[in-house]
Amino acid sequence: MNDTIRLHWFWSTNPQKVRLALEELQLPYELNKIDLYKREHKTAEYLAIHPRGRVPALEIDGGVLWDSNAAIAHLAQREGRLWPPGGADRCRALSLLFLESSAFQDLAGVFYFNRVVMKQIGKEPDETRMSKAHAKLLPLFELLSQHIGDGDYLLDDFSLVDCAFAPWLPWLDLDEHPALTRWRDALRGRDSWSACRVLEPGMDPDA
Ligand SMILES: N[C@@H](CCC(=O)N[C@@H](CS)C(=O)NCC(=O)O)C(=O)O
After folding, report:
1. Given the CA of residue 13, which atom of ligand 1 is nearest to it?
2. Per the CB 3.0–4.6 Å rule, which of 5, 51, 154, 160 could disulfide with 29?
3. Does 56 sit behind a cis peptide bond, omega within 30 degrees of 0 on the bond before it?
4. What pLDDT, on the 0 to 100 scale, is given for residue 1?
5. What is the CATH number of the domain that holds 124?
6. Does residue 204 lie in a domain region?
């Protein structure tokens, strides 16, 4: 069995979640850039790895994880680090991970699409769509703020579930939510954030 960990990646949000997790766990990995703007995610070769033709895909342990949070869950289970070993904290971690997949990702994606992708293709952002998405995000912001409480992370300490939310945070309007801005700033200060060059407003992703 090939024991190389290979991340099929682009600098957009979902692949960056998995790269952050690999960096935080300090696992050696190969990065294979799949340029979405060149439609490299739709080649026959890549579709044999990711059946939906999206990024990320993580080749590991003889298999492929073709969803960012599935990859994070696998890494958590495999490594037994940066993840609660059991009990109520693991229930919290899994619920938050699935919240990101089932609700947060699509709404945060509206901001990422309008503030990053539309700009890249020379179009104006759709403010109405963003304002509707923001209204739907508010209850989720409240829920996440409750989990953060007076701390810096979703659980008592940093964990891989923070990686699942991190790359979205620079693109959301968080000023009215002090727990979330504190969380974003704590994540921004970690070595993994700079190692992955998590995209921020004003940054050139291809630099
Ligand atoms: N739920 C998937 C979403 C993956 C996804 O939509 N990735 C985006 C980039 S961040 C993509 O590949 N977009 C290209 C497309 O949809 O054609 C995950 O979490 O991995």
Report:
1. 10
2. 5
3. yes
4. 62
5. 1.20.1050.10
6. no
